[in-house]
Amino acid sequence: MQEEQYRARFSGSAALFGRAQRLFPSGLTHDARYLEPFPVYAARAAGAHKWDVDGHELIDYWMGHGALLLGHAHPTLVEAVTAQVARGTHLGANHPLEVEWAELVQALMPAVERIRFTNSGTEATQLAMRLARAYTGRTRIVKFQGHFHGWHDTAAAGGAVRPAGIPEEVMEAALVVPPNEPRVLEEALRSHPDVAGVIIEPGGGAWGELPVRAQFLHDVRDLTERYGVVLIFDEVVTGFRMAPGGAQQYYGIRPDLVCLGKILCGGLPGGAVGGRAEIVDLLAFTGDPARDARKVAHLGTFNANPLSAAAGIAMLRQVQTGEPTRQAAQLNARLVAALNEVLERRRVKGFVYGLSSWFHVALGTEGERQADGSWWPLTTAGAGAELAAQGLVQRLRRAMLLEGVDLMRNGGFLSTAHTLADLEATAQAFDRALERMREDGGLPER
């Protein structure tokens, strides 16, 4: 029943998907947008809302995959990008905006003594791993189970399933250990003297779906220092969202390298690697041709692109005030509480949890109630993985779309553009969506 209603309501998206299937693998341009029987196609967006090609208005919690702290088409960013378009979209040269942009990052993140801009967050983690190897003269990178660092070979290696197309040698260069277990990490570092770096999402794996304990982050810092290993904070998600200075500021930890993206670029493409000067300066030219031929190489047509720089500057000037981070986090806390109230009232097994300004819905799974009333997932695979195995992610998202809300799979990001009215409407939509799911295949009961 739900799928029939979905097909009828989003018929324009169905038509576009039919065309897309003749062009793209599975009709998609991003794996995360996979949705059966077809994804919704958006035509425009403003603030916390977007409109699909059929004209339906949706409350949006994708927020550009977390890149839009100020919401869609924020006037300040629109003005900055529009002005730069008239001056040139690609100057093929250094330009003043890249200097101002870097200075803003450095002012917000003291750990960033040097910085190099990239074209994406994936490129940022790739470059950070390369710098760690070059600095230490070692080869192996330690990752944590469930933590996402982009789609390049080393980042994708080391999971429970071996992705196609990755050589065995690359798989062996990644060592995966469980998070929140400092003794396991220490044993890995002790028994593998070839470890160059440890990379972690400090806000938790898969944009916080697998939370990490604050003490564990401090343990990771202590252990990497003890064993002479480069600590890489992947702050593509947490950078400028957890605090104006990112997770570094939030937890009071200074990493050796930090990877940035999303909010850094004000919703436009880009990324960056920053950190200790002696590490990042391995990218620098020395003037000795023989030596420079062996330096860490890094190119990229759109590095520090003027449009991304203009948007990034406008964004970080807002971030400097501290207000966007505070406001989005407060809204997120209210939404998490409201959604948990719905689950409790309907006696549905599950819980909603989050940190900073993101949240995750865990249906049919067990959680641990913390002293402050928040929830902590017990599964090591992540709530999304369990829901996906049961088909609940797809059912929940379709039901929410029918009720006028677009979740980022089983969760989402808050922005300063969301309002209390949006939160109330979302809680009401969640209530109705659960009823749809109950009528259309059942729900896990308490």
From TrEMBL:
UniProt superkingdom: Bacteria
Keyword Amino-acid biosynthesis in record: no
Requisite cofactors: pyridoxal 5'-phosphate
Protein species of origin: Carboxydichorda subterranea
Protein name: Aspartate aminotransferase family protein
CDD domains recorded: OAT_like
Keywords: Aminotransferase, Pyridoxal phosphate, Transferase
Organism classification: Bacteria, Bacillati, Bacillota, Limnochordia, Limnochordales
GO molecular function: transaminase activity
Matches recorded under PANTHER family: GLUTAMATE-1-SEMIALDEHYDE 2,1-AMINOMUTASE (PTHR43713), GLUTAMATE-1-SEMIALDEHYDE 2,1-AMINOMUTASE 1, CHLOROPLASTIC-RELATED (PTHR43713:SF3)
Recorded family membership: Belongs to the class-III pyridoxal-phosphate-dependent aminotransferase family.
Short name of one Pfam family: Aminotran_3
